[in-house]
Design a protein that fits this description.
3 copies of one chain form a homotrimer. Chain A has 2 domains: 17-135 and 294-305, Aspartate/ornithine carbamoyltransferase (Rossmann fold); 138-291, Aspartate/ornithine carbamoyltransferase (Rossmann fold), CATH 3.40.50. Chain A contains 11 helices and 9 strands. The radius of gyration of chain A is 20 Å and the shape is globular. Chain A has a 5-stranded parallel sheet with strand order 7-6-5-8-9, sandwiched between helices. Chain A has a 4-stranded parallel sheet with strand order 2-1-3-4, with helices on both faces. Chain A is 38% helix and 15% strand. Chain A has 309 residues and is α/β, with parallel strands linked by helices. Chains in contact: A-B, A-C, B-C. At the A-B interface, strand 2 and helix 3 of A face helix 2 and helix 10 of B.
Chain lengths: 309, 309, 309
């Protein structure tokens, strides 16, 4: 049994550096096997239950693909609201029931802490696919895997996180996960949407160098990796301020002339308009490759937590 | 070909004692195989269609898991209302169409008799997963299987059915199925929700001893198996009577002190509050194991009716 | 690699006669294998994504069954409206994302041209499962396959298309596809719903003989194959005209006495009342067999476009 066997995956900061390395190497191994046309039967005869209390088609399909690519089967609850929960069943009871069907459970839930509550209810491994404003650890791991694949390394990189750093679950989790490496950060946001002080302090305490700016051009010039997120109108009390700021955080192809030659552009998707489509054919536009990297990462996690990797 | 090959599963009272024994033994065999980590390919290359005209996530997932554990594939219509039926297609035509895709069909429908109508439309086996206030035979079979597993036998047991015995499809079907065995019944309900006379007469005609009470404590003291169901407020014309009665039919841990040492507590789930959560870690609290038993029972039925067991 | 490898399937008029023959022969081969109880693993380890931006349960289940019968896996978005598209994501981005999961994509979309747009976004093969009033090429191919199976040939047949020929996507596509063969057409419709002139001209230009009538009895007497479609009330400006006409286009068993002995009756389904149920046990009532033929045709297409047939 591997070291992650029977473990839950609840938070992006739960893993030791060794565990992170194991996940990344397992993902790399499965990705190579699929690319080579190998048919895997790691999970043959096993069943994954996806249980989505709020819809997230992208995340659901990525997990289901991962299970199918490992030779396993999938039972799906794409919209759990309309099911037993509607009849007044507690999350505990729902999980105890699904435990009777599936070998491993993927949960998406609108409430912070739901994944932890689910994990406590069952001896089956639970993978957190997002619990409201809480954690979404498989997203952070696929982000890290993408940086490693695109740049060939993680240590030594200057990584710019930009957009709504105040409210963005994705950038908080990624910043903490990357603090396991010898990186430096550039946090790029308007004043109203700056990275929370506690995240900045936590990252600095881990020995990571942090700079902050509200200028996207600086980030493009200095960074190896630019991680874009969306600025949402509804986050601003003052609509006029939103209108003034939003254009400063839209990435256009013309802005990339001063970027490094092996510049990497990431985004958790879906994008609306914060990256213009003329950026898509830039060699460093990695966001669709990033999305595809969710499959090998989730293959690795499914196989590791069930002790079959 | 086995004796259930090409048969439909429509009612819990359709089976001979020999057929019931065959189903239970087949379920036991598949459960042991899965527990031993065997990968089954009994249904390899075959396709199950689940067709749910009303949502029942628990039942759907249990059937789908059963098919996957047998190595088969599944096509799902989780909410058939929004499909062809909405375009005015008859159930007959829907079934004739699905017959062109699937080797076996699981139907859930809000109308009594829908499963029979479906079975008459097709030469494929149809499994009734609940037709309104009608039948839900796979639930009764998994209940029976649970009693057998928990108690090691069925003959000789005193079985208490409690809750809304007047309207409960589940308890009616189970009472009739258990009448194939040498059991005695204790029907525990308030006057307004007593077991219908025709069920009592049918059970007695089968030679089963029946007693009735409205006192849950008596049942706990006397019975080997206590089968709980919910008392629903909307069943009472007089709300005050509901408020007076409901507490008398809630099971609490403290009430179990006088129970037999190998007492078994069952419930078809979902529960709302009729079994308090402090009962869950009682060794006889079997309701989540009962739910899990749906998988081997449905594996047995799927394999038997397709002639592959 | 076969000649259709890596191709998209977007329009029923995209195929050469050789390609049509290849598809029909591949379908026949897979159908024979399934009928013989063979378990195919042509698509083992591969993943199909069905992506339905409007519901079409029949078409979705047929494609999913086809993939499962080939040994592949399926990820499903049965109602894509409630997913990322609702967050403002473009079809291009959705397809680029799904490309990261699946080996082949089936798209149903309410807008004409959506399948073509999807195909241009990805290097994965895209199969058009209906794009609004546009094309539905797999329906036309299964219609053709049905005629071939029911009649043993296509050349030399007199084929009557009837119902709403003005607005019917299905009959337009089928007429064009059949123009590859030495057939003659009888277009049977009320004046208000006649076949569009451009389709008639295109068919004639391909060398096919065309006659038109508004009399269903003539079609039954003369044709080898009668293809029924529905006349929808909402197509008529004048409701009185609808009421006058509708009965003339309902097929009843008594009307078949003058039909040829090997007469074939087809319908794309679902029917509402345009074929009375007493027609169903006529030996030539092929509409449910026609629906079932969708599976081998879609097996053939999935295997051919992924280069695995």
């Amino acid at each position: 049994m591997g070291k992650l066997s029977s473990k839950d995956v609840l938070r992006s900061d739960q893993f030791s550096k060794d565990e992170i390395t194991l996940i990344l190497e397992t993902a790399r191994r499965y990705e190579a096997a699929v690319d080579a046309g190998e048919v895997l039967d790691v999970m043959k005869g096993k069943v994954l239950s996806t249980l989505f209390f709020e819809p997230s088609t992208r995340t659901r399909l990525s997990f289901e693909t991962a299970m199918l690519r490992l030779g396993g089967g999938v039972i799906t609850v794409a919209e759990a609201r309309s099911s037993s929960a509607a009849k007044g069943e507690s999350l505990h009871d729902t999980i105890k029931t699904v435990e009777g069907y599936a070998d491993v459970i993927v949960l998406r839930h609108p409430q912070i802490g739901a994944a932890k509550e689910a994990a406590e209810a069952t001896h089956r491994p639970v993978l957190n696919a997002g619990d409201g404003a809480g954690q979404h650890p498989t997203q952070s791991l696929l982000d890290l895997y993408t940086i490693l694949k695109e740049q060939g390394k993680v240590d030594g990189l200057r990584i710019a996180l930009t957009g709504d750093l105040k409210n963005g679950r994705t950038v908080h989790s990624l910043a903490l996960l990357l603090s396991n490496y010898d990186v430096s950060f550039l946090f790029v946001a308007p004043d109203a949407l700056k990275m929370p002080r506690e995240i900045v302090e936590q990252v600095k305490a881990a020995g990571v160098d942090v700079a902050e700016t509200d200028d996207l051009a600086t980030a493009i010039r200095e960074a190896d990796v630019l991680y874009m997120t969306r600025i949402q109108k509804e986050r601003f009390e003052d609509t006029a301020e939103y209108d003034r700021l939003k254009d400063a955080f839209i990435l256009r192809r013309a802005m990339l002339s001063e970027a490094k030659s092996n510049f990497t552009i990431m985004h958790p998707l879906p994008r609306v308009n914060e990256i213009e489509t003329d950026v898509d054919d830039h060699s460093g536009a990695a966001y669709f490759r990033q999305s595809a990297n969710g499959v090998p990462i989730r293959m690795a996690l499914l196989a590791l937590v069930t002790g079959r990797a």
